[in-house]
Amino acid sequence: MIKANDIMTKTVVTIHQDKTLLDAIKTLVCKKISGLPVSNGTGKMVGIITEKDILNFAFSGDLKNTKVKNVMSKNVKSFSPEDDVNTIALTISENPFRRVPIIENDRVIGIISRRDILRAALHISCK
Predict the structure, then answer these.
(1) 98, 110, 34, 46 alpha-carbon torsion, rounded to 10°
(2) What's the CA angle centered on 103, arms 70 and 90, to 5 degrees?
(3) How many domains does the chain have?
(4) Which of 50, 86, 109, 124, CA to CA, is 20 to 30 A from 22?
């Protein structure tokens, strides 16, 4: 059994819930990623914000003054580092999201994307 810990990306870029959507866009574009776990003042994950969340808001709101916490998805499916990758893959395939955070003690310690699962399934290394 392959566990989440075996394939997750361990260097996770996060954003604080009180940052603006403009800050989130800059982070997404500069880091070349499509979603960010959102944390509160104590480092606990409280949501996730994606390019899609921002695009859905962008044409009707103020990107410079709107906080991430007002646009982020709050009901986030997450997994532990010990969870089976097959379960994670099934969850991702049955839902509209592209990634799931890996949580330990309420903190994001990793993230698994569709690409991570494909890489693991096909034993592809890009290093």
Answers:
(1) 90
(2) 90
(3) 1
(4) 109
Is residue 95 classed as helix, strand or coil in its secondary structure?
Answer: coil
Give the number of C-alpha atoms closer than 13 A to the C-alpha of residue 122, restricted to the C-beta side: 8
Q: Is the pTM of this model over 0.90?
A: no
Contact 19, 83 (CB under 8 A): no
C-alpha atoms less than 13 angstroms from C-alpha of 85 in its C-beta half-sphere? 19
pLDDT tens readout for residues 2-16: 999 999 999 999 999
Q: Which domain holds residue 84?
A: 4-122
Sequence letter at residue 42: T
Kindly state whether residue 73 falls inside one of the protein's structural domains: yes
Any domain includes 127: no
